[in-house]
């Protein structure tokens, strides 16, 4: 799941255990809350994965995920991931691409110059 409101990149704790994904204890536990302010389970994130190779389409990158209880959405790519990769997502045509949308940036730059 891609969630622009998520402050981190998350992986379901039970899925990580099931797949035998190596984890590490965080030096400082992080509080995790929903948009309405209520704490998400387990309330504090105490573990993260070690660096994992994530493959989406033909794009590969190394990612670290915070571990939370989220069986309905076992992988959440949040704002940090979106900021690093800036994917092009077309919800109307159900098209996505991890190629950065440089045309959009160029078009908006050209519009500013024409004004």
Question: How does this structure look, described?
Answer:
The protein has 3 helices and 9 strands; from the N terminus they run E-H-E-E-E-E-E-E-H-E-E-H. It has helices spanning 13-19, 79-85, 102-114; strands at residues 10-12, 23-33, 39-49, 52-56, 59-63, 66-68, 75-76, 88-90, 95-97. The protein starts with 9 loop residues before the first strand and ends with a helix. Residues 101-115 have low confidence and may be disordered. InterPro entries: Peptidase_aspartic_dom_sf, RTL1-rel.
Q: How much of the sequence is in beta strands?
A: 35-45%
Secondary-structure element pattern, one letter each: EHEEEEEEHEEH
Distance between the termini: 38 Å
Uncertain spans: 101-115
- What is the helical fraction, as a range of percent? 10-25%
In DSSP terms, counting alpha (H) and pi (I) runs of 4 or more, how many helices?
3
Structural class: alpha+beta
Report mean pLDDT, rounded to a whole number: 78
Largest sheet: 3 strands, mixed
**Number of strand elements:** 9
Strand order of the largest sheet: 6-1-7
């Amino acid at each position: 799941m891609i969630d622009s409101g998520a402050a981190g990149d998350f992986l379901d704790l039970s899925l990580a255990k099931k797949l035998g994904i190596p984890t590490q204890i965080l030096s400082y536990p992080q509080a995790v809350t929903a948009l309405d302010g209520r704490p998400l389970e387990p309330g504090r994130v105490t573990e993260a994965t070690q660096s994992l190779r994530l493959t989406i389409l033909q794009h590969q990158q190394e990612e670290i995920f915070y571990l939370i209880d989220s069986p309905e959405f076992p992988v959440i790519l949040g704002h940090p991931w979106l900021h690093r990769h800036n994917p092009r997502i077309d919800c109307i045509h159900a098209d996505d691409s991890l190629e950065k949308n440089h045309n959009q940036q160029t078009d908006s730059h050209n519009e500013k110059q024409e004004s």
